[in-house]
Design brief:
Elements (H helix, E strand, L loop, with lengths): L1 H38 L5 H19 L7 H22 L3 H29 L1 H38 L6 H41 L3
Organism: Caldinitratiruptor microaerophilus
InterPro entries: SpoIIM, SpoIIM-like
Keywords: Membrane, Transmembrane, Transmembrane helix
Amino acid sequence: MRRLQRLSELVAEDLEERVGPVLLALALFVAGVIFGALAVGSLGEADRRETMAAVTDLFRGLARGERPLPPLVALGAAARDYVRLILFYWGLGLSVVGSVVALGETFLRGFAAGFAAGFLGAELGWRGVAYSAAALLPQGLLTVPGLAAAAGGTVHFALLLAGGQARKSRSAFYAELSRYTRWMGLSLLLLLCAAAVEAYAAPVLMGLAGRIP
């Protein structure tokens, strides 16, 4: 019990230090969603038809109880992607330029989510909104905070290095590196939970949405 309390205190302290960069990353993700939704209008008619045909086939299969991948396989694939992403972000935090790349990656992921939601909404109306909510919202409640936390942590550590706070001594550097790694580990934990939701819950919800007349 004391360990859990101590862990929660550490997380609260880390969040307090990183709240600015995390909010910046969150704002960029939201901006990406908005720009992605607006970009739907730039699709040509042929691209719209091709994309819509693929989406329709997917949702019809889900409505029949079919899944593109078995849940365990989907979970493993999503988990591997998130582990690679967090390792990538962790490495980017070793420089200011790298932290900007992390923010750009966060924006692009928001753009992709906004584009998908905007496309479904534009093509299918309220049914598209239901599809988008089923496909993106469940895991998004964990993915978005996880991505924002990871990108914000990357920016925070890069600024510490650039400002010299983490380079005053070897012990100071390793102490900050340990805190940075712990923060990224917590971000990964959120993303792994999102991967489980994506693998097990999202296909069921998407199948239910696909049965909407």
